Amino acid sequence: MADRGAHPLSLPDDWPDHPDPILVLNRMGSFDWDLDAGVMQMDAQAHEIFDVRPDEYDDCPTTLSVRIPPAEALRLDATVSQALKDGRENYGAYFRVRRRDGSMRWTHTQGYIRRDDTGRPHRVIGIVRDATQELDDAEVRREQAAQENARRRQTNIVQLTTAALAHARTVREVIDALKDTHGLTHLGATSLVMGLVEAGRIRLVAEGPEGSFVPGTDVTRIDEPYPMSEAVRTLSPRFIESPEDFADRYPGLWEGITGLHITSAAYLPLIVQGRPIGGMGLLYSDRRGFTADERNILVALGSSIAQSLQRAMFYEQEMDLAQKLQQAMLPRTIPSVPGADLAVRYRAATIGGSLGRDIGGDWYDLIPLPGGRVGAVIGDVQGHDTHAAAVMGQLRIVLRAYAAEGHPPATVMARASVFLDELDTDRSATCLYAEADLSTGLLQIVRAGHLDPLVRRADGSCRRVCVPGGLPLGLSAEFGRLDYPVGTIELDPGETLLLCTDGLVERPGSDVDDGIETLSALIAEGPDDVRELADRLIDAAEERGGDDDVALLVLRRRVLDSQRPGGRLRQRVTPGDPEALAGARRMIRTAVGAWGAGDRADEIELVADEMITNVLMHTEGAAVVTLRALTGGEPRVRVEVEDTSSALPRRREAGESGVSGRGLLLIETLTDVWGVEARGGGKCVWCEFVVENEPDPV
Asked: Listing from the earlier edge strand, what are the strands of the sheet with 462-464?
């Protein structure tokens, strides 16, 4: 035994003739060993400890060999010799003594080494005592400590397993947490098998280690002779103590898993509120049998796992319902749009990194409008729950209805805001609505607290288009009737419009503007095909994760093989500037002639002059004249005159002088089609002329 750090003994020089009374009282024997003479004297108590009578002991240490077994004597001699050699002052050791009756008793000795002036040892004085009870008590304490450690390990198993299951939200995640290497280590098992109760049957959802599947056991009846079926049927565990026990009780199952070297198994019912929802089997290859404590801890584990499994099943049911609701609220199909390539995508939020999906209120929509126009919508209702999805569905339908009725974009957004405010919900929503005329590429955009759109040019570069915006929808009660200014942009053939919700750009710890710059770079580097581009962006969002869902709409104005880019000219005419008016007339006359539309040159110039003059006479601002050559399909020339007045043109009776009052009549008579559109803070009066020859671009 190891030296316990004995301290030097302070004994009188004539010891052991006069033994210390304290030693006697503590039932310790003493000895005095003269190393030079080879004589070791012992007192009466030492004789009793070694179980030798005074007449049997001749003061020679070797005489004690009859009481000290050889192995013990060798170990004791080695301890003493090493202490003498090392120059130590003391030593201590435990050894066993065989008494007359053959019983073995533990003995402890401590010796103090006296040396001469040269350091040579010449005398050892010390004590011996019976240490049997001491070591027996120590063994009891060790056993108690081992039992306590075992109970602590069992408690840790429950705690570690519960912690591993804490973040599991689906049945698969519960199984993965249990089958994970650390999970099986916590459980002490080699592998795991699990089944769920479905319509009176047990369906395996985890079949243990690879190659352990037994044909015909993927779905079993509860009344079949399998250990999991019995555990589920009786609501009590089944413990299999040995391979022989397994083969005897379940021969059919054992035959299928013999090669796995299973030595024991525990099959536990998974019970919630007195009802079995499944069963679990833990297979062991390094143990036989189960103690009472081990059985209790496994039953407790089964209860904890059952609670996690039921929570996961409820979550999956809720998510299935939520996803179906989300799918029902989003458009089932997206209509094809002549002159455009389209792609839409939706990605549900990820909660807790890669654990599970959650539902949100993001949506997209594409609305066919009269005159070949189309409305593109992207929006985000506040919140991530079924209520957000329900509000989103109602808001999408209402906004679609207002747009289809032909209301201008600002009116569509304002009415949608009032509707959401009156819906008796505490949710607000951001939204962007873009009304596009793909024949001209003109887009009118209204924005309610939403992100600006992005446009990818034909050369691949991407820019953020800043358009004026208003407050989110649903705040009319707080701020009164909300106004939504209209922004106008032009989308050239080959350019792509991208609308998205903030889940595509927001990142924890980063600014939204930084996210938009990152997204712009990703778009610029992405493929030209809108579907491939949409997939690339959603994949990037998937890799990044995040706790917000994503809606995405990508629209690319198509360049047809038979279509050549048409001409487009623009000029500003301000009041009191006759040169500007004359310049606009020259621009129109020159362009129409160059485009090969000379047969209608007079009509086009006359109508354009009338539209410009009306702006200069009846508004306080300037007129912006745009002349377009529309190619592809039926060739046309389009004239647009914009102003800052929201007052719509109206028909008036001509006066006696006949100087005014015939403007709209003139436009209706000479043009093939005309109309008025709201543009930001004003309007645009436009008209088109069908020409015989396809205009040549300038």
From this structure: 340-347, 550-557, 496-500, 454-456, 462-464
pLDDT bin (cut points 50, 70, 90) of residue 434 is very high
Q: Any residues with CB less than 8 A from the CB of 693 and at least 6 apart, and which?
A: 596, 597, 635
Give tens-digit pLDDT for 528-556: 999 999 999 998 888 877 667 889 999 99
Secondary element (H or E) of residue 588: helix 578-594
Q: Average pLDDT for residues 676-685, to the nearest whole number? A: 78
- Classify residue 549 by its DSSP letter: -
Structure-block tokens of residue 179: 């089958």
Phi, psi of 647 (to 5 degrees): -70, 130
In this prediction, residue 480 carries a pLDDT of 65
Q: Are 588 and 627 in contact (CB under 8 A)?
A: yes
* DSSP class of 471: P
Q: How confident is the model at residue 352 (pLDDT cuts 50, 70, 90)?
A: very low
Among residues 640, 644, 595, the alpha carbon closest in space to that of 616 is found at 644
φ and ψ of 354, to 5 deg = -105, 15
Q: What is the mean pLDDT of residues 483-512?
A: 86
Dist. CA 161–CA 471, nearest whole Å: 49
Confidence of residue 177 (pLDDT cuts 50, 70, 90): confident
**How many CA atoms are closer than 13 Å to the CA of 532, on its beta-carbon side?**
6
Q: Are 596 and 614 in contact (CB under 8 A)?
A: no
Strand 104-115 relative to strand 121-130, pairing: antiparallel
Is residue 327's pLDDT more than 80? no
CB 674 within 8 A of CB 686: yes
Half-sphere exposure of 83 (CA within 13 A, CB side): 24
Average pLDDT over residues 633-638: 81
Residue 476 DSSP SS3: helix
Rg (CA), the chain: 47
| pTM over cut 0.90 | no
Distance from the first to the final alpha carbon of the chain: 107
191-198 and 201-207: which strand pairing?
A: antiparallel
Helix (H, G, I), strand (E, B) or coil at 432: strand
SS3 letters for 289-337?
CCCHHHHHHHHHHHHHHHHHHHHHHHHHHHHHHHHHHHHHHCCCCCCCC
Task: Kindly provide the b/e burial profile for residues 433-465, where b requires at least 16 CB atoms within 10 angstroms of the residue's own CB.
Answer: bbbbbbbbbbbbbbbbbbbbbbbbeeeeebeee
Which one, of 167, 232, 160, 163, lies nearest residue 195 by Cα? 232
pLDDT in tens, 370-415: 767 899 999 999 887 778 888 888 999 999 999 988 888 888 999 9
